[in-house]
Structures
1.
Amino acid sequence: MFQVPTKTQYAIRALVHLVHAKSASVASIAEAEHIPSKYLEAILGKLKNAGLLISERGRNGGYRLAKDPTLIPMSEVVQATEGEIRLVECVDNAAVCILGEGCLPRHFWLGLKSAVDLYLESVTLAEIAGPETSST
Amino acid sequence: MFQVPTKTQYAIRALVHLVHAKSASVASIAEAEHIPSKYLEAILGKLKNAGLLISERGRNGGYRLAKDPTLIPMSEVVQATEGEIRLVECVDNAAVCILGEGCLPRHFWLGLKSAVDLYLESVTLAEIAGPETSST
DNA sequence: TATAATTCCTACTAAATAAGTCTGAATATA
DNA sequence: TATATTCAGACTTATTTAGTAGGAATTATA
Ligand code: FES
Ligand code: FES
């Protein structure tokens, strides 16, 4: 349960890399982080669409962060790669629930979701990336 | 991300049923809860092996809770059906981690795991099952 | 003792999801 | 023009989850 997909782990590693690198191409990140480059390409695409990254095409192109890492909560990162967290179908979709609104399991799942959400919102990319090792 | 497996949802429904029913056969639970009975059979087997249920074979046999539902934290239930929560491989397995002990992503994942664990430990089966609707 | 109701055990199949690859177009720079 | 890059979509493969099938072992009871 709760296996965090490789995709998300890759995304985080790549973002951390970009915090330190300012700008980098897919290929260079893939090599540095040991991530299959074609796969990374797709992942960075998603991060871009989610507004976390800005890209530059063509020669000397690459990706860079769209905003300061202190302004990027991890919830956004996870959201970008996985989409909405949907623990259990009947939770989002009250109609599906057998027991209706008062359903206790429902409250249980909602509580779990909220525990996870709160945590993810409380941590920023900057904290995960650690002190900026500016190239001195 | 974080899809809770059907298996676990079934397990919870079955346990809630047993809180109210005291004792029941796989077939009767399966019917009442609309769960494929052969599948349920396997799930209850796991719950039994985990020490949550007690079984009686043969005619008039069935399953019942091994202990009072107020003494069963949901963490045990989840653990029983899914095994250890292992969010990310490198977290349990420090050797796998590229960055070693100080790895910040590692702390992030550990924090998430702990948020989830704390929540699961804080809720008991009794709370999910609600007031005992003893057959009056 | 025979029968029916049950748990238990093992192996298998099917469906869904995640991981990764391939091809090639579009774009920018030198 | 040649080269380095992002971008887009279809495709393949691997892994996990869900579900089925068949039958052995056990027990109550008729
Ligand atoms: S059965 Fe899932 S919310 Fe009620
Ligand atoms: S713990 Fe995962 S890379 Fe460090």
Note: The beta strands of chain B are 53-56, 62-65.
2.
Amino acid sequence: MAAATPDAPGAAPVPGSPAWWADRPEPRGAPRRGRPALDTDHIIATALRLVDEHGAQAFSLRMLADALGSGTATLYRHFASKDEILAHLVDRVLGEVDLSDLDALATWQEVLAAMAHRFYGALRRHPNAVPPLMAQVPVGPNGLAQRERVLHALLDRGVPVGLAARAFTAIGHYVIGFTAQQHGPTVASPDAAPQLASFYRRLDPTAYPAITRAAATLTSVPLIEEFRFGLDLLITGLERHAPRTPAPAGP
Amino acid sequence: MAAATPDAPGAAPVPGSPAWWADRPEPRGAPRRGRPALDTDHIIATALRLVDEHGAQAFSLRMLADALGSGTATLYRHFASKDEILAHLVDRVLGEVDLSDLDALATWQEVLAAMAHRFYGALRRHPNAVPPLMAQVPVGPNGLAQRERVLHALLDRGVPVGLAARAFTAIGHYVIGFTAQQHGPTVASPDAAPQLASFYRRLDPTAYPAITRAAATLTSVPLIEEFRFGLDLLITGLERHAPRTPAPAGP
DNA sequence: ACCTGAACACCGTTCAAGT
DNA sequence: ACCTGAACACCGTTCAAGT
């Protein structure tokens, strides 16, 4: 029957899910048992490097153990499963997003644009980490810290609390969807965009008149411009719900 | 070096990529060799049923072969790899989206909203198929047919061709991102939304004041409303670029 | 000529045997 | 007490041997 209903009462929480992260009391550092031979951070950093280099599909625990000069069994002294390692890896990517200077921005529009662009940048630096990242709401320690910072900055600039949360969610979903489709591992060549455009242009115009017409018009739009277009739609849409005036900047 | 750069010149195209679909001349039917014992459509339909029931991770070729009363080697007479099967499976899900009555809608806004809701509905019916779906731009026969229909309906209602293509892309990315985060297999319990909300609410208010405040306010917003909110942002944002007037309905 | 059992080289995970 | 080699039950894929 229902096979893929994780976090069912009684069952062990799925790694990366809210319930799973909630069971992990130590947000940072603090090895779990004694003093292990391998540093937890080092394992995750190595795993991320391997995923970057070889792709999430080719990444295996044997490969990771080899890179660490260790055996696969040793990894299980630090993590309960491969999925746990991937959950930490995803949170590590989110940790690369630097939102420390959000206070310097005058308007909530700028805050949302900065958040979107920097989140987008981190995902572009780790396209092979996108599939594991998409599979979960990012509620690890770094994901929570980013969410807190952005919501705080929005509230500070007079955005109503309900709107702030919805804006964060909507823009987050857009960034994830955009990156998945345009920079996922299946399309992760540097020239993915022109490739896709020329694919559309070469279709039979009789069978696909509208697609080929659009492709002929939209010849070589840089991806970053396409990204900005959708982002602007969301932000201008939000302006109908929220004040346009920037809050007085606190000292 | 560059490990995950598919569709490189000379290399075989990655299943599901534009280049791969372009090599598949027969959009529908027509078995490839003689008269095979297994129907291609039947294989894909069975594969989708198994993915629905057991999840994409548990789905294996042995499981598929068993369900078909056959052996794994037989599957390779119809498809070159598991990825090929998944690419067809994804296109089959897109084939469930019914856009045949788009002509009855008066405005381009309604066209985009209908497309988003029906695409969203198909993904919700197959949450376990979302991970393979996200990994690729959907350019299989069914994906192309949907794209053509929507673009045609938008052009018919006076939307400029460049804007139509960008609107389709932006809304498609939003739907994909929303579904991945809210209905992916990791969070695919029926009560995922309240679960996530209560997770936020139980966080330490000292460490995460903005998150807990937002969670307390946004108690139990139905997911469909959250979906509509982001969609409305995009559509109202688009209205600044396009005419508001519906085109005269053709007979 | 078409099909497929059985093998191949892997995989994540476990555990008994080592130190 | 801690670590880990070697095994376990799988996996996607191949191919020689069957009909």
Note: Chain A has twelve helices and no strands.
